Amino acid sequence: MNLKFLGLPLLFSLLWSCSEKPTQIEDKKRPNIVFIMSDDHAYQAISAYDDKLIQTPNIDRLAHEGMLFTNATVTNSICAPSRAVILTGKHSHLNGKIDNRMPFDTTNVTFPQLLQKAGYQTAMFGKLHFGNNPKGFDEFKILPGQGDYYNPKFITQNGDTTITGYVTDIITDLTLDWMEKRRDTAKPFLLMYLHKAPHRSWMPAERHYPEFTTKSFPLPETLFDNYETRGTASPTAEMGILKHMQVSYDLKVPDSIAKTLDIKNWNQIGNRIGRLNPDQKTKWDAVYNPIAEDFAERFPNMSDSTLTVWKYQRYMQDYLGTIAAVDENVGRLLNYLDKKNLSENTLVVYTSDQGFYLGEHGWFDKRFMYNESFKTPLLIKWPNVITPNTTESEMVQNLDFAQTLLEAAGVTSPLDMQGESLLPLLKGEKETWERDAVYYHYYEYPGEHAVKRHYGIATQEFKLIHFYYDVDEWELYDRLNDPNETKNVYGQPEYAETVKEMKSKLQEVRTKYKDSDELSNGYIELYKTNGWIE
Ligand code: SGN
Ligand code: CA
């Protein structure tokens, strides 16, 4: 892969030396770091943010004992790019992992490498999704690619292994096994505990079938959004619950039933039920087959809106069902820390690689800079530093995690990291926090779900988005007056001044973060050369 066009003659050796020296802080005082991340976990599905869909008492503990961030966002709302931003502390256009297709450039310096060099014991368990193994970890056991919910395969330093059971439980078992048996008690540790759930295709653990498959959930206000004021990106995106959610793959109607119904693309993808062993399959069928039979009977008389609601409910049942297991397992880990008297000196982060649409605007999936996928959950607990039960509304990003965790460990960050350490906010010293805008850039188009390329800027009051590549369209949202972002006010005379100000701010942040049209065009050219886009 030739990334030279990016102008990335990486000054790693120079930057490396800045952080090479072990910290002066004594090991016993340096905090342990537990970084918990799930995949596609919407803040709407964490009761500390909103309890109308699900109760998540264990994740909520981090808010009760620490800080809940209500304005945490990602810089690029897609899995592997978000992970690359987190590990490198650099925007996608500089770390090179602009979308799920681009390989991660392992010459990037990551914060776990720096912590390991500074004397931390490091371990990673769960989903990474880079296509290559992580550097800077004493131990890792990761899922290949997206991983599977049932009987998942893991890549380990000793070869691949397949483990029978449910992925969320297994990732936790592997984590606790490492903590119990191989943790070096003379060192502080960094643990990256990374769930696959609640990623598509949303398959819950057997113990959660009865509760979740019989529940109904409140409909989001914008479920039937018609995108009246928006440009072409929203109506052409392929992530609609009605049109694009597959009854077989996503909603678990068995193929034998689905194919008898007059539904286009009922099984475009092919489901994952084949991974279940006979015992698991019997339990699965006992619950899911009657649901499908009932659906098959009602389907011929369903209007589009009835079908949308049915699909939304089925989607929520399984999506939230997978979260119940995440919450229980987070509880197992927090209890372990308590039991071993580690909680006092451990900083625990809970976040997701991005947010997700739970029916808002009629969608599932993510990618857009609109709120539900731009925002990400962020809860941090750090006893004796963070005042319990605090809420922080400053605009923070996943870009900030690397510098935050390095500073918490007393390690100097490389000069080319682009975030801000959140330590002042964690300590309640807000006076030094100056950020008034955050930057976003999404690239994966043409691609799955067909969300057009866009970049933009958000302040507390407004959001300005520019869609480019095959269009040249702008959207502006008045965040305070239109929290659901259903009214694009770009082009309205009363917002002319705001547009001017936001465009100039956008240019400022693009310059600050070193992004440009030239760089975007360079990526487009590279993709065309590699045959990844036409
Ligand atoms: C898979 C999913 C998509 C999802 C991407 C990216 N399709 O391709 O729905 O948007 O992952 O998700 S599936 O048919 O494989 O389920 S990400 O979290 O990895 O970015
Ligand atoms: Ca994801």
Explain how this protein is built:
The protein is of the alpha/beta class and 534 residues long. The protein has three domains: 28-159 and 170-198 and 318-429, Alkaline Phosphatase, subunit A (3-Layer(aba) Sandwich); 206-315, no CATH class; 441-529, Arylsulfatase, C-terminal domain (2-Layer Sandwich). The chain contains 17 helices and 16 strands. The strands form three sheets. Strands 7-6-5-4-8-1-9-10-2-11 form a ten-stranded mixed beta sheet, sandwiched between helices. α5 (111-117) runs parallel beside α14 (401-408) and α6 packs parallel to α12. The radius of gyration is 23 Å and the shape is globular. The model is unreliable at 1-25 (pLDDT under 50). Calcium ion is lined by residues 39-40, 79, 199, 353-354.
Key traits:
10-stranded mixed beta sheet; 534 residues; globular; binds 2-deoxy-6-O-sulfo-2-(sulfoamino)-alpha-D-glucopyranose; Alkaline Phosphatase, subunit A; binds calcium ion; alpha/beta
Q: How does the SSE layout of this entry go?
A:
Layout: H1 12-18, E1 32-38, H2 57-65, E2 67-69, E3 72-73, H3 79-88, H4 92-95, H5 111-117, E4 121-127, E5 139-143, E6 153-156, E7 159-162, H6 167-181, E8 189-194, H7 209-213, H8 233-236, H9 241-244, H10 255-258, H11 278-298, H12 304-339, E9 346-352, H13 371-374, E10 378-381, E11 390-392, E12 396-397, H14 401-408, H15 423-426, E13 438-442, E14 454-458, E15 462-467, E16 473-478, H16 496-512, H17 517-529
Parallel strand pairs: 1-8, 1-9, 2-11, 3-12, 4-5, 4-8
Antiparallel strand pairs: 2-10, 5-6, 6-7, 9-10, 13-14, 14-15, 15-16
Helix pairs in contact: 5-14, 6-12
The structure holds 2-deoxy-6-O-sulfo-2-(sulfoamino)-alpha-D-glucopyranose (SGN) and calcium ion.
The site of calcium ion (CA) has 6 residues, from loops.
